């Protein structure tokens, strides 16, 4: 039974989720801890070990595991380090893979969470069998993973594929965390869509809208979706504007890597055609002829609650 299982760990800004996964993509056991409960990485690993070591023993011990895969913010694929992650307490460069290997006695592979999601789609999801595709996660931010010739693109320093930070509107909206103006994440994330709603409401201040029934603090991407579903024209325009920008960006990505498919994941995909119709139209309108009508836009079919663990575990197979 040697090497029949893997461990997937997803380090988030609030919670860290982890689980025992078999090669068929079944999560046999899983749990979570608070990421920033302790002040340093060593303390984090001890809290993790308290929960994960008994799970390992219940599944045959370390000899039954091929290794540990970890997705984390600002993770360097080559060095196994987490470097200057803004939403974690641990400052500077953390040799996370080395620390985890010493504590658990298993080899560790790690990359950023978006790259891990791409590998998970390739092994367990709608991209199974595809060698050229891009995953785009439309959540609080915009994450991306690029697969070319069946391999994740990490670049010379381990940080390639940051498509969410590509500038799509020069001199545009300020991204507070990066200082970049006009990045894709500033417009095509759930946060960006909310910011667009606020801008539109202030710009067309005399225009009636169901969105005016909410305070600024109550406005979310879900609020805009619910109002659009009720036929609110301003809310529909917000989705059209967001889809236009996203589609233009996807066309740029297609020109760069000629993928077979773009796999979309995350909360904004639940808006369905409200977002996807203008996105697809804008993408096709901005493609060279040789690329038109060739790239599929797919929705991830991985269960959202499990996708991060599956993606991280896929790194070690």
TrEMBL record:
Q: Which InterPro entries match?
A: ATPase_NBD, ROK, ROK_cs
Q: Which residues does UniProt assign to the signal peptide?
A: none
Enumerate the CDD domains for this protein.
ASKHA_ATPase_ROK
Q: Name one Pfam family in it.
A: ROK
Instruction: Note the PANTHER family from the entry.
Output: BIFUNCTIONAL UDP-N-ACETYLGLUCOSAMINE 2-EPIMERASE_N-ACETYLMANNOSAMINE KINASE, ROK (REPRESSOR, ORF, KINASE) FAMILY
Record's family? Answer: Belongs to the ROK (NagC/XylR) family.
Please identify the protein, giving its name as recorded: ROK family protein
- Organism, scientific name: Bergeyella cardium
Q: What is the lineage of its organism?
A: Bacteria, Pseudomonadati, Bacteroidota, Flavobacteriia, Flavobacteriales
